[in-house]
Specification:
Elements lengths: L2 E4 L2 E3 L2 E3 L4 E2 L4 E2 L4 E3 L2 E4 L3 E4 L7 H11 L7 E3 L5 H4 L2 H5 L7 E3 L1 H11 L6 E3 L5 E5 L2 E7 L9 E5 L4 E5 L18 H16 L3 H13 L6 E4 L4 E2 L4 H11 L6 E7 L4 H16 L4 E6 L5 H10 L2 E6 L8 H13 L5 E8 L4 H12 L3 E2 L2 E5 L4 H18 L17 E4 L21 E3 L5 E2 L35 E3 L7
Parallel strand pairs: 8-9, 9-10, 10-11, 15-16, 18-19, 18-20, 20-21, 21-22, 21-23
Antiparallel strand pairs: 1-2, 2-7, 3-6, 4-5, 7-8, 12-13, 13-14, 14-15, 16-17, 23-24, 25-26, 25-27
Helix pairs in contact: 5-9, 6-7, 8-12, 10-11
Bound molecules: MU-OXO-diiron.
Length: 493
């Protein structure tokens, strides 16, 4: 069944109420999702994206009921991942010579997945356009690493519809198609969950790309995503939200997460949270056991927070595995502008807390004192945990605190570990770098070594970064110079 979107544009996608996992099992889709495909019937008939491969047959069957497949003039694939290009094999078997417009990187991925190099591919770049008749054009905008190297958006002139693919979408399934028709709280929760878990590492690029698109001064009447709803009511609201989320986002919120062998570390978490709340009743404090709670929800809370406390019992002199997994994810998501501290109970040695503290520092958090408790915290130890919470609340406060209420502090069998000093990161100013300063792509971690240059882009060995052309693109991910930073000591070893 198709849904009318605007003028000669119809949604011909697929709802998926029951999907619960994405990207393997890494992203839990508790609200299902949809795979949005759009059929445009102007002077030319154009299909924008397909659906997940598991719905290939239904999709082509439904599409054939909507239009004679032979009458489709062009297929546009904004992104080659299987949830959007998955039905191509089934579709192209019916219309094998139809031109497919996509980025150069997408051809590589589509061919790698579908094994049909003979398909009629037409690679496009930012600014390329396709005349679809009736005075309307499709204009292509490459969006590499939002969130794959092949990603792009397609803008339809006159109707002013931006087909944004994954960007601005949500894993959210509803019988309604438009943003003004669904539960607004659910909708924004799913938007934020999607951003926090998928797009956070690319925040610098989100900002740069949105500003580039806004710089075109194109009117936008709708943002037609490839998952979830179509933004028709105040469609720029989600674009502005992305700008806000990409800009070192934080709320007055602290998240504690931990795993606990014998409940001792959990007792510490509760007491620390009480201390925070005593000093700063206004701050939101959330506590999660990583072994029992939805990982993506915890990561979303970390994204929203100004500070994070990570706790673990010491097991085999290291942290518990689920905490280690979360720290690995947090490192990859590259959160910025957040404070952090470790805590945990131990019996024989307290290795977990020190390891967590080091991992948090390596992940880019501003570190505060950690806290260890030996065995099960007694009354005085819990009092010390509460005092630790109070001190963190003061250090992390975003506003002046009213501390007129008295608090008591008791000596206890806890150890406030020394702050591990973060290695000073030189912050070179453009033009003041050494000529041999290597540069790190913050998106894909590719390193530009001036000694080697980049011969594929005619950058000769020995070329300092300052002399590399502004049109330079990272060979790893295809993004420009704006996402490069001077290599820190840790990043480039
Ligand atoms: Fe919705 Fe990147 O696939």
């Amino acid at each position: 069944m198709s849904i009318h979107v605007k003028n000669n544009i119809h949604w011909v996608g697929q709802r998926d109420w029951e999907v619960r996992d994405f990207h393997g099992t890494e992203y839990k889709t508790h609200k299902g999702t949809s795979y949005n495909s759009y059929l445009i019937r102007e002077g030319k008939n154009v299909l924008i994206d397909t659906v997940d491969h598991k719905f290939s047959r239904e999709f082509v069957q439904n599409l054939a009921a909507e239009i004679d497949l032979a009458a489709i003039d062009f297929v546009v694939i904004n992104h080659a991942e299987e949830d959007h290009a998955g039905a191509l094999t089934e579709l192209m078997a019916r219309i094998p010579g139809t031109p497919i417009y996509c980025t150069h990187n997408a051809i590589d991925s589509i061919t790698g997945h579908h094994h049909h190099p003979e398909w009629n591919f037409h690679p496009v770049k930012t600014g390329d356009s396709l005349d679809i008749g009736n005075g309307k054009q499709l204009v292509f905008i490459e969006t590499p690493m939002l969130h794959w190297p092949d990603s792009m958006m397609t803008y339809m002139t006159e109707d002013a519809v931006l087909f944004s693919n994954d960007a601005f979408g949500q894993h959210y399934c509803d019988e309604h198609l438009f943003n003004d028709e669904v539960d607004q709280v659910e909708l924004m929760e799913q938007c934020q969950r999607y951003y926090a878990n998928i797009l956070t590492p690319f925040s610098p690029l989100v900002t740069a790309k949105i500003k580039e698109v806004l710089g075109f001064n194109l009117p936008v009447s709708m943002v037609a995503t490839s998952h979830g709803i179509v933004w028709r009511d105040d469609p720029t609201q989600i674009i502005l939200k992305y700008l806000e989320w990409a800009d070192h986002y934080q709320e007055d919120r602290i998240t504690l997460f931990y795993d606990s062998m014998s409940n001792n570390t959990r007792m510490m978490a509760d007491a620390i949270a009480q201390g925070i709340h005593e000093v700063d009743p206004g701050v939101a404090v959330k506590i999660y056991n990583v072994a029992r709670h939805d990982k993506n929800e915890i990561l979303t809370q970390v994204f929203r927070s100004k500070g994070v406390l990570v706790g673990s019992s010491t097991m085999n002199n290291v942290m518990m595995p689920k905490v280690a997994g979360m720290l690995e994810e947090i490192t990859g998501l590259r959160f910025r502008n957040k404070r952090a501290s470790a805590f945990g109970s131990y019996g024989w040695t307290g290795g977990a807390v020190d390891r967590i503290q080091t991992r948090l520092m390596d992940a880019g958090f501003d570190i505060s004192l950690s806290l260890k408790a030996k065995w099960r915290p007694d009354g005085s130890a819990l009092a010390q945990c509460r005092e630790h919470g109070r001190q963190l609340a003061r250090q992390w406060a975003l506003h002046p605190l009213d501390e007129s209420r008295p608090f008591t502090t008791t000596q206890a069998t806890v150890t406030r570990a020394p702050v591990i000093a973060k290695a000073p990161q030189a912050a070179p100013v453009a033009g003041e770098w050494d000529d041999d300063q290597p540069m790190l792509c913050t998106v894909c971690q590719w390193i530009y070594d001036p000694a080697l240059g980049e011969p594929d882009q005619l950058v000769a060995p020995g070329t300092p970064w300052a002399q590399v052309s502004d049109s330079f693109l990272c060979p790893g991910c295809g993004i420009g110079k704006e996402v490069f930073e001077p290599c820190g000591a840790e990043a480039c070893v």
